[in-house]
């Protein structure tokens, strides 16, 4: 049997960093999209309300 | 609404793009989750150890997708630059703003996972060979693009400058690809090429393909979500600006 | 010519200029971009004795000698590119991947006697990824000895699984 090196800490660090970054990017994008949608909806309804009350 | 003349301009309309994104989003994200779960579990626990690298070869299943994504996101930036400079495509600049940070993340992860692979295998965290250096240059191109596109008070000027940087920096992509063939490097040549059979066991190639597809779908989903969010945000800004204008008109009258 | 086509041609012209500039620069510097020198290059044009170079090649089978001197491992081995060989001396711990038949890159200086004193040895692995059971099987059946060169053509083993190789 030849000597096979074992370097699990390096493997764990590589996977941990990659999965962590992917999760942060993915969840961040989803939250940002939801916030942007609700904010746009709020502004639109507010403007519509103001226009109908002004006319 | 005006008729859409061709494919290039069909998704120039942000509304059309939002509809496309909304239709694709669930497929992209579920696909990414399934492929990534299967690929990572397979790569981490079921793929065989390599005859010379042992278990450490498993870093490949995250390192290679990151390298692929770093290059393809930059290709995306360059295409956005071309669309923005030549056709003044309205979505291209918005897309460039959103793709930049994602690509920079992929490039950084490619460098870090490569370093974590190099230290136990080669015996060094970093060497200045042609492959590693050209990928580091790609990372700095991303940082430059991110900074430049936000550097001006008038967004159009920053977007113009960033588009030029993205196009000029695309020269780095063939250099990265062929560096391992043109010069002798510490980094090994590509195992998967268009011209020949892969010099890799099928038992390792499958998990690699699956994680690559998974990360690609995931990045597509993230970019679509970021771009949709950016369109919503810019609409909100326009509406706010218009209402402020109306109010100031009314108060002036 | 419309404004769009004019802009397209300007962009194409700029890209052509930049790529030719990059290609010329890379051609001019190609000898500096090379990460290491092969033993035959070192033999043909020996660098100055005080100049640090990187020497790259395969560790020749049967050439590795390890002794321990004052508690530190002293290694000597021949590095070859198939045309010439250089004897390398290195005091220190070799990387895990180091073995006979492995490609290595050594950083150091060429001595007056033609030997090479290394201050750092890096292992360079090739692009062949093979389960270790398959490698054992290829060695057992005499199809490949890793000490004497690259693995056989991938098509002959890439569908061999651990189970088939072990049984």
From TrEMBL, chain A:
It comes from the Bacteria. The chain crosses the membrane at residues 12-31. It comes from Gluconobacter thailandicus NBRC 3257. This is Heme exporter protein D. The keyword Transmembrane helix applies. Keywords: Membrane, Transmembrane, Transmembrane helix.
Automatic annotation (TrEMBL), chain B:
The chain crosses the membrane at residues 27-47, 67-87, 99-118, 130-149, 161-184, 204-227. It is a multi-pass membrane protein. InterPro entries: Cyt_c_assembly, Cyt_c_biogenesis_CcmC, Cyt_c_biogenesis_CcsA/CcmC. Residues 24-187 form the Cytochrome c assembly protein domain. The keyword DNA-binding does not apply. It is found in: Cell inner membrane; Membrane. Required for the export of heme to the periplasm for the biogenesis of c-type cytochromes. This is Heme exporter protein C. The gene is ccmC.
Automatic annotation (TrEMBL), chain C:
Residues 145-167 are annotated as: Disordered. It is a single-pass type II membrane protein. Residues 1-7 are cytoplasmic. Heme binds at residues 125, 129. It comes from the Bacteria. One of its GO terms (cellular component) is plasma membrane. The keyword Lyase does not apply. It is found in: Cell inner membrane; Cell membrane. Residues 29-167 are extracellular. HAMAP family: CcmE. Heme chaperone required for the biogenesis of c-type cytochromes. Transiently binds heme delivered by CcmC and transfers the heme to apo-cytochromes in a process facilitated by CcmF and CcmH. Belongs to the CcmE/CycJ family. This is Cytochrome c-type biogenesis protein CcmE. It comes from Gluconobacter thailandicus. The lineage of its organism: Bacteria, Pseudomonadati, Pseudomonadota, Alphaproteobacteria, Acetobacterales.
């Amino acid at each position: 049997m030849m000597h096979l090196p074992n370097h699990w800490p390096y493997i764990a660090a590589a996977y941990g960093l990659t999965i962590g970054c992917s999760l942060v990017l993915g969840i961040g994008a989803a939250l940002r999209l939801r916030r942007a949608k609700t904010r746009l909806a709020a502004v639109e309804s507010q403007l519509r309300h103001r226009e109908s009350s002004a006319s | 609404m005006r008729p859409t003349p061709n494919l290039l301009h069909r998704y120039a309309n942000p509304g059309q793009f939002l509809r496309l994104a909304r239709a694709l989003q669930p497929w992209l994200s579920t696909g990414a989750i399934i492929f990534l779960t299967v690929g990572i579990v397979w790569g981490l626990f079921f793929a065989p150890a390599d005859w010379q690298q042992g278990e450490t070869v498993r870093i490949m299943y995250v390192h290679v997708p990151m390298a692929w994504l770093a290059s393809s996101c930059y290709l995306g930036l360059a295409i956005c630059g071309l669309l923005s400079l030549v056709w003044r495509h309205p979505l291209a600049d918005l897309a460039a703003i959103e793709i930049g940070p994602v690509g920079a993340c992929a490039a950084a992860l490619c460098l870090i996972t490569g370093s974590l692979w190099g230290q136990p295998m080669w015996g060094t965290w970093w060497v200045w060979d042609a492959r590693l250096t050209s990928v580091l240059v790609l990372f700095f191109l991303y940082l430059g693009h991110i900074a430049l596109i936000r550097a001006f008070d008038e967004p159009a000027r920053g977007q113009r400058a960033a588009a030029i940087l993205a196009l000029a920096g695309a020269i780095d992509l063939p250099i990265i690809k062929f560096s391992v063939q043109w010069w002798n490097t510490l980094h090994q040549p590509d195992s998967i090429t268009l011209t020949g059979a892969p010099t890799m066991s099928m038992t390792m190639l499958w998990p690699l393909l699956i994680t690559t597809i998974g990360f690609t779908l995931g990045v597509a989903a993230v970019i679509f979500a970021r771009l949709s969010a950016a369109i919503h945000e810019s609409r909100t800004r326009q509406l706010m600006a218009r209402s402020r204008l109306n109010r100031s008109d009314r108060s002036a009258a | 010519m419309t404004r769009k086509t004019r802009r397209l041609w300007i962009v194409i012209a700029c890209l052509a200029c930049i790529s030719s500039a990059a290609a010329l620069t890379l051609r001019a510097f190609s000898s500096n971009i090379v990460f290491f020198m092969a033993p035959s290059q070192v033999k043909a044009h020996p660098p100055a004795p005080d100049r640090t170079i990187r020497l790259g090649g395969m560790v020749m089978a049967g050439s590795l000698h390890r002794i321990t001197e004052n508690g530190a491992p002293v290694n000597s081995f021949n590095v070859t590119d198939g045309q010439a060989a250089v004897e390398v001396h290195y005091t220190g711990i070799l990387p895990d991947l180091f073995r006979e038949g492995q490609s290595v890159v050594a950083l150091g200086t060429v001595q007056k006697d033609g030997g090479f004193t290394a201050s750092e040895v890096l292992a360079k692995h090739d692009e062949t990824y093979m389960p270790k059971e398959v490698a054992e099987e290829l060695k057992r059946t005499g199809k490949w000895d890793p000490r004497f060169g690259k693995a056989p053509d991938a098509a002959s083993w890439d569908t061999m699984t651990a189970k088939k190789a072990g049984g």
